[in-house]
Design a protein that fits this description.
The protein is an alpha+beta fold. The chain has helices spanning 14-25, 52-55, 79-91, 96-103, 112-125, 139-155, 200-209, 229-239, 306-320, 330-334, 341-346, 367-380, 435-454, and strands at 7-10, 33-36, 60-62, 128-129, 134-136, 159-161, 166-172, 175-180, 185-188, 190-193, 214-216, 219-228, 244-248, 251-259, 262-268, 274-280, 288-297, 326-329, 357-358, 394-403, 406-408, 422-424. It has two domains: 7-108 and 133-215 and 407-454, FAD/NAD(P)-binding domain, CATH 3.50.50; 218-403, no CATH class. A hairpin with a 4-residue loop joins strand 8 and strand 9 (185-188). It is globular and about 70 Å long. Bound molecules: flavin-adenine dinucleotide (FAD). Flavin-adenine dinucleotide (FAD) is lined by residues 10-16, 36-39, 46-49, 52-54, 56-60, 62, 68, 165-166, 194-199, 202, 257, 267, 277, 279, 426-428, 433-436, 438.
Length: 455
């Protein structure tokens, strides 16, 4: 590795950080690595800053290749072994006693007996159950891990440029030149773009500017459901995160990101773009469980802007809520009536997200998604699943959307693009959708860069 060979990483989310830590452990000196992050060390946006969306996430480590991304489409390595590495990357930054406690949870929520019982209830309801091995760290513990990562990078001499937004990159000879919003230009022999969902627009522009072919991925739009935690207990006790899927009118719909005893929160992409999400703080149980119900929409020719389609839903919703998310009690959603404060007062549970204003989700969300979600909710309200869900004990929040649309059309098993030494990882490039797979993708790219640096 020559004196001026650097590894430049765009985005300090779990993908970018895992790449940096892996590269150091596999032989690249820390002072040869630069990580560029547009947010602050601790950022109020919940989707930017050191740790990325991961720093404020619910900290559920989902150790399944079928969940949280499509890494298995590219990676030839043993995915299970990779997930073990990811688990180590999180747990080793916690005190020894807690490490052991979390390790002992391996398999706890993938109990075959409970799985068989839930699976049978799903057959009766016309749904599918996906068992998953989950380790729920919770938000506070996840933040501790992220702090450990920061200290590790700092002590290893990594240059972490915070509050610096990358505006583009280009190839010059055997170097990648990265331009930043403060006018700075940085040169790297290897470049990893890991900008997460909040960096999606930047990535689309950068891919286009570099002539890299892309393909549309699906988008997920829907609502966040909040209900009485006692109602969800039979499922959350057994699985923590119940992953249920339906096929309604040929459309895919599913539960996602279950937060037992959690609260509904806001994630902010910019001044105009916000969405709801969920969080569990085990130390502060709320008596409510929330989860997303998402309708997967794939838009192909002639549409090249699936994100704009989802953006329209987000914008319309927050217009209705005067720049706030909206909340509707289930009976109003079902009867096609907007909710008002008086309906919220009559509801058996209080919303955990106080700033959400009562409104009418159907005015913003397309008719097909509403129909699919309504039918799916009725299927969930079945014997052995979430009986009692479709009642005055349930609230629906909007907008809830997951945008992972444009991805590079060609990536190698090491996540290198069609351009030499340009790698992609994480959610922004449409490769992953969760902490474990995002981190795993960073490990893969970081390892390959270290191998090339040693060669
Ligand atoms: C509230 C919430 C809860 C979640 N809970 C869970 C959970 O429990 N379990 C789970 O598996 N997943 C969860 N997720 C998803 C998880 O956080 C993401 O899948 C994961 O963080 C993706 O990692 P990433 O590194 O690809 O991207 P990110 O974490 O989004 O990080 C990317 C970073 O790149 C930076 N960036 C973007 N563009 C630029 C640019 N142009 N210049 C410089 N920097 C840039 C961003 O500021 C960001 O910090 C949650 C997400 C949210 C928002």
């Amino acid at each position: 590795m020559s004196e001026d060979d650097r590894f430049v990483i765009i985005g300090a989310g779990p993908a970018g950080i895992a790449a940096a830590i892996t590269a150091i452990r596999e032989g690249i000196a820390g002072d040869r690595i630069t990580v560029i992050e547009q947010g602050r060390r601790r950022d109020p946006s919940r989707v930017r800053g050191f740790g990325g969306a991961g720093a404020n996430s619910d900290g559920k480590l989902v150790l399944e290749s079928e969940i949280g991304g499509e890494l298995h489409e590219w990676i030839k390595a043993d995915i299970e072994a990779l997930f073990d590495e990811v688990l180590d990357l999180y747990l080793e930054f916690l005190p020894e006693d807690r490490r052991g406690r979390y390790r002992a949870m391996r398999g706890r929520f993938r109990n075959p007996e409970a799985g068989a019982r839930i699976g049978r209830a799903c057959i009766r309801a016309g749904l599918e159950f996906i068992p998953a091995d989950i380790i729920p760290l919770g938000t506070a513990t996840c933040r501790e891990v992220v702090s450990g990562w920061f200290e590790f990078l700092e002590q290893s001499g990594v240059e972490v440029l915070l509050e610096t937004r990358v505006t583009g990159f280009r190839a010059e000879g055997d170097r990648w030149i990265v331009t930043c919003d403060d006018g700075r230009e940085l040169a790297g022999r290897w470049l990893l773009a890991a900008p997460g969902r909040s960096g999606h627009d930047f990535l689309v522009q950068a891919l286009e500017a570099n002539g890299i072919e892309t393909v549309n991925g699906p988008i997920d739009i829907g609502v966040r459901v909040e209900t009485d935690a006692r109602l969800t207990e039979p499922l959350t006790e057994a699985t923590w995160e119940f992953k249920l899927r339906g096929l309604i009118e040929g459309e895919r719909v599913r539960t996602f990101c279950v937060c037992p005893q959690g609260s509904v929160i806001v994630e902010r992409y910019n001044e105009e773009l916000l969405a709801v999400n969920g969080q569990t703080r085990p130390e502060q149980p709320t008596g409510r469980t929330n989860f997303a119900v998402l309708h997967t929409v794939t838009l192909d020719e002639p549409c090249h802007s699936p994100n704009q389609f989802a953006g329209l839903y987000i914008r319309t919703t927050i217009i209705l809520g005067a720049l706030n998310p909206i909340v509707q009690v289930w009976p109003n959603f079902e009867r096609r009536r907007r909710s008002r404060m008086s309906d919220l007062r009559k509801c058996f549970i209080e919303p955990t997200l106080q700033r959400a204003l009562p409104g009418d989700i159907r005015l913003a969300l397309n008719a097909r998604s509403c129909r699919v979600i309504e039918e799916f909710m009725h299927a969930l309200d079945s014997d052995g699943l979430l009986e009692g869900l479709c009642s005055n004990r349930t609230l629906m929040y909007a907008p809830e959307a997951k945008l992972y649309t444009v991805r590079p059309a060609r990536l190698s098993a090491e996540l290198e693009s069609e351009r030499e030494n340009l790698f992609f990882a994480g959610d922004g490039a449409g490769i992953t959708r969760g902490l474990v797979q995002a981190s795993a993708s960073g490990i893969v790219a970081g390892r390959e860069v270290a191998r090339r640096a040693r060669a």
